[in-house]
Amino acid sequence: MTTNYFKTYPDEKGYFGNFGGSFIPDELIKEMNNINDAYYSISKSHEFISELRSIRKHFQGRPTPVYYCNRLSNKYGGRIYLKREDLNHTGAHKLNHCMGEALLAKYMGKKKLIAETGAGQHGVALATAAAYFGLECEIHMGEVDIAKEHPNVIRMQILGAKVVPVSHGLKTLKEAVDSAFQAYLQDPINTIYCIGSVVGPHPFPMMVREFQRVVGIEARDQYQEMTGELPDNIVACVGGGSNAIGLFSAFLDDNECKLHGVEPAGRSLNKGEHAATLSLGKPGVIHGFKCYLLQNEQGEPDPVHSVASGLDYPGVGPEHSMLKDLNKVEYHSITDKECIDAFYELSRSEGIIPALESAHAVAYALKLAKANPKQSILVNLSGRGDKDIDFVVDEYGLPGSSK
Ligand SMILES: *Cc1c(COP(=O)(O)O)cnc(C)c1O
């Protein structure tokens, strides 16, 4: 990697190598250009930087710690460390880019934040950011997801957001994206669309990466301070790819650090039973950008599945698509079952209940530790598992129980 990596990728059209870009209607291109221009002029100002720094420290509780897993390391071998994004306010890394996007919206004079949500995690983080800045917030959500994710719907409403039910098609994430885009196009002057990962048309994959880089910058310093060296392995789960790119971005020039992205292998690697996009996808276009995509012969996205609702997306960030082709990051997959085992293992060995998304990264780290007992591993623990506890115990039972 060149030291100019962040200036080189994406290029001015939003390409990371062959991936990214903006495959969107003309009326949206103008808006995306406005956001891009605003991002470059505003986010580099002293005022913006110091306000964001203050928010991270006093509101979000950053820096989040790096933690050494003593019991887990003794049991599996290796030296396993966690970057504790579960301790970030609202319990996951998503608030890092939501606060950045909302702060940009405030500087741009926007009045309202619009987004879609699937399981509700992005909706809750964005509703939190909107409340903080006194902005209106409108979250589009499929009716199927509204029924499934009741606590997050209530959280958004308590925070003052308007939850808009989407009742067409399959009534899930894809329709919610379409609906949110429609609402945004009706008033692009006063509103801004806030994407929930390093996906979507340019400039979102770049902007969200920049707001998530704080995770890697902190973790690299903290790890070096604790150990005097760099980790041999860096591990993060990949849905759209924001928590992974946040951590990886600080280590791209460190050739001694191996980077591992972990995708969901779901119930199996048969079509429709997983979301292992980088392992099994082919280049294609979804939601306004080019990436590896799980798709049928017509280029339509395949149905996907993961036990972790934050990971079940048929596309993936364009930067990950490029990093795969450059062999800079290795991508692996972990099954639902391995994820659940890791969920309980971390809970019982260390007293930390991980989000099911993050448990994919933990599961892969445990495999790595066993295979390489002399090496160190830094895992991004992207979120806490409180949201998942009822589901896990209902579906899988407690370890050792008959269920
Ligand atoms: C949403 C979510 C993810 C997946 O999103 P990325 O953009 O791939 O990081 C991972 N972990 C948690 C806890 C999440 O809420």
Please describe what this structure looks like.
- The structure is a single chain.
- With 403 residues, the protein is α/β, with parallel strands linked by helices.
- The protein has two domains: 3-57 and 94-205, Rossmann fold (3-Layer(aba) Sandwich), CATH 3.40.50; 61-91 and 213-396, Rossmann fold.
- Helix content is 45%, strand content 17%.
- The chain is built from 16 helices and 14 strands.
- It has helices spanning 5-8, 26-42, 46-60, 70-76, 94-107, 121-133, 143-148, 150-158, 173-186, 204-227, 242-248, 277-280, 318-325, 336-350, 356-371, 389-396, and strands spanning 15-16, 19-20, 66-68, 79-84, 112-116, 136-142, 162-166, 191-193, 233-237, 258-266, 282-286, 289-293, 329-335, 376-381.
- The strands form four sheets. The chain has a six-stranded mixed sheet with strand order 3-4-14-9-10-13, with helices on both faces.
- A hairpin with a 2-residue loop joins strand 1 and strand 2 (19-20).
- Helix 3 (46-60) crosses helix 5 (94-107).
- The radius of gyration is 20 Å and the shape is globular.
- The mean pLDDT is 96.
- It binds pyridoxal-5'-phosphate.
- Pyridoxal-5'-phosphate (PLP) is lined by residues 92, 94, 121, 197, 237-243, 310-311, 355, 357-358, 382-383.
- Pyridoxal-5'-phosphate binds next to helix 11 and helix 15.
- Its EC number is 4.2.1.20.
- Its cofactor is pyridoxal 5'-phosphate.
- The beta subunit is responsible for the synthesis of L-tryptophan from indole and L-serine.
